[in-house]
Amino acid sequence: MNQDQRAAVMAALKLTDELPEHDVRVEGTPFVSGAVRRQRISYAVPGGIRLTAWMLHPSVGNGPWPALLALHPHGDAFGQGGEEVAGQRGQREHHYGFNLAARGFTVVCPDLPCFGQQQAPPGMPIDRFWEQLCLSRSLAYGRSLLAETIDQLRCVLAALLDLDRTRGLTASVIGYGMGARTSAWLAFCDQRVGSLWMHAGLGQQAVMIKQGRLLPRHNLLPGLLSMGLDQADIVADILPRSVGISYGKGDRVATPEAVEPVLKAVRDRQATFPQSKLAILEGDYDHRFPTTVLKEIGDRLLEWAE
Fold first, then answer.
1. How many helices and strands in the chain, by DSSP H and E?
2. pTM tops 0.90, yes or no
3. Which of 107, 154, 285, 301 is deepest in the core (most CB within 10 A)?
4. What is the pLDDT of residues 32-46, one digit of tens each?
């Protein structure tokens, strides 16, 4: 992607020029669960709203630890959001925020729009119908649900980097499914993301359309394909920062045919920046997040955070 194309994408995103001060606050009483200490925090986002999220870090030691933002998947699990990633509920293999905190990160697990605390208010359509309404509202006002999501994450990223037990001026980001695509967009927009890992869900949108698949609402930028760009260009542009991608060859959400252009683009980009760190893990599984894969991801993220 050249500079003119990048400028066109940023102009199309229409991100908020002046974000509110994050005003991060510690909320409630912390508690320890095995190797991890949990604490609720709150922070300000556009629209005069305060959101809360779980902050996790090792229960032993005083830090500071490298910062990590953990973004949850979709899976129609609108009631769970960041709580699943933080190990509070849901499937154990989705507790990657909790597991990486135990390994030595300060982790924040936010709710993305339409999930967790951002579900529909009383009297409004719920679950995917609320998600559809939020997308429609954004489009009607000339923006996108993607832009609203990235604005919120820029605020929580600033809050994460200002926490007392966080080390460094950049953060790592990990995402799964919807969270993987969202983390790519966040890294594209914000240089404070020093490294990221995307597990499952990455796929070329043009390929998914040809396969008859609906495109994810949180990751749609109107006009992206008409610029001659696609998901692969967004991911590749993040290099020379450290990038990791893992996926299963049996994934039916983002098929290998949709993933392959992304892999080619990042490999081509690495040839231009041979000093960059790129890791690609392919496995014999579907859209799941195997614990063995998470172990290797943790090894790489810790290495990149040094």
1. 10, 9
2. yes
3. 107
4. 989 999 999 999 999
